[in-house]
Design goal:
kinase, 14 helices, globular, nucleotide-binding, 2 domains, Phosphorylase Kinase, domain 1, ATP binding, ATP-binding, alpha+beta, inositol-1,3,4,5,6-pentakisphosphate 2-kinase activity, seven-stranded mixed sheet
């Protein structure tokens, strides 16, 4: 099969769309091309100062981007393909990438530009289905954690907080103290499958988007392929024409229409229920229980943080884990985890983190007015060396929330029937 070459396009054919911690995304914006039209280009990033020291050797064959194999062999065994974008490998060129940086780096958020850049030494990238550029409007939601942990593996110091207040709401409290914009959004409302609570969550997401002028990343709007902000009057008018019958740009009317339309789209889709199930079944120990199992199983190793002495899984190991997840895993006694299963529990937590950190794209179906496609994106593989950081962050979040005196109660609808998420 003849490889797809990025040099068959020009850097100016690509427009910046968005980025996450590991990748940056560009959309093809030129006349029709059978290989590139209706696709986005996903490129790996590298921290400033590390590009010249990368282990990548541009003179030898580099492997395909791991996200292709990870989705094909792992994610697609957990999520039906209809809810995932398609991926294909594209051959890159260093000079082409450097030209792209010169052209588009100014379109990136300032805080991102200060931290990292496109890894111009990569020789392979990813072309993915363009879920944004071909649509008059599209929305990206980052749902985050959709469950409360069970009490079995929590310490006496954390059990009351963690089983009452969700991780996102506690983390929001810490972020606000650090200068972030506050939000009343609670993921457990969005994941509840209850119309009233889903509308409440969407209203909070809208308010966060509007009040932060689009700086909060849990909700993003794309109009005609470009990300918009609330202070863009022309784009807001386009939103109004899509969501309202009279084209009113009144903020409250637009918010109400948005929540009504999106709530129905999400309630009609199985995606949020699927994500919630994957998150909670893969993270059955909480990071506290995982840490205890780790130290009990490996008592002779110096403890430099959770997962510090564990190599990343190979693709064959990931395949084996998915097979176990679909069979023996659900019959294990997770209340008293077997030390022999430590590596599988570590992998399960990594995979849960992937689904906690993913986004969904909601876009109108071209063939059916009033209907929407909901697609899961950003399901990247996580590394073992992240576990120690997550363990420390968990401790910091809980300690801050405890000292703040806040008592927000978040209701996990899969554990109790009571509705609501309220600040007391």
């Amino acid at each position: 099969m003849t490889p797809t070459l990025i040099t068959e396009t020009k850097p100016e054919d690509w427009t910046y769309i968005s980025e996450g911690g590991a990748t940056i995304v560009f959309s093809y914006r030129r006349p029709h091309n059978v290989q590139f039209s209706d696709h986005v280009l996903r490129l790996r990033k590298v921290a400033h100062g590390s590009s010249d020291n990368t282990l990548l050797d541009t003179n030898s064959e580099q492997p395909d981007d791991p996200m292709i194999a990870f989705q094909e062999n792992i994610i697609s065994k957990l999520v039906p393909s209809e809810f995932l974008p398609s991926f294909v490998m594209v051959v890159l060129d260093e000079d082409w990438l450097r030209s792209l940086v010169i052209l588009r780096d100014g379109d990136r958020p300032a805080e991102r530009r200060q931290t990292d850049q496109i890894d111009v030494r990569r020789t392979k990238g990813v072309l993915a289905t363009d879920l944004i550029g071909g649509m008059p409007i599209a929305m990206e939601i980052k749902p985050k954690w959709g469950f409360l942990p069970t009490e079995y593996h929590l310490s006496p110091e954390t059990v009351a907080l963690k089983t009452r207040t969700c991780r996102f709401c506690m983390h929001t409290s810490l972020r606000v103290e650090q200068g972030a914009v506050d939000t009343t959004y609670c993921p457990l409302d969005l994941f509840s499958s209850d119309d009233t609570r889903v509308r409440k969550a969407l209203g909070a997401l809208w308010a966060g988007w509007y009040e932060s002028n689009g700086s909060l990343n849990n909700l993003r709007f794309f109009v005609q392929g470009g990300m918009i902000k609330p202070d863009d009057d022309h784009s807001v008018q386009l939103l109004a024409h899509f969501f309202t019958t009279d084209g009113s740009t009144d903020v409250q009317n637009l918010r109400q229409s948005f929540t009504s339309v999106l709530a129905q789209a999400l309630l009609d889709s199985p995606v949020l229920s699927l994500l919630s199930t994957l998150q909670r079944t893969l993270d059955v120990l909480d990071v506290e229980g995982l840490s205890k199992l780790y130290t009990q199983t490996l008592p002779d190793l110096p403890y430099n943080g959770l997962g510090s002495s564990v190599p990343d899984p190979s693709m064959d190991e990931w395949k084996d884990f998915v097979r176990i997840y679909h069979s023996d895993y659900h019959s294990w006694n997770h209340t008293v985890p077997n030390p022999r299963h430590l590596r599988h529990y570590l992998m399960a937590y990594l995979l849960s983190a992937t689904f906690k950190d993913c986004s969904i794209i909601i876009s109108p179906k071209s063939t059916q007015v009033g209907s929407f496609d909901v697609t899961i994106i950003d399901v990247d593989i996580k590394s073992m060396d992240r576990l120690g950081k997550w363990e420390r962050l968990d401790r910091k979040i809980v300690e801050h929330y405890k000292s703040s005196g806040s008592q927000r109660r978040c209701i996990d609808s899969q554990r109790v029937t009571q509705l609501g998420c309220t600040r007391l």
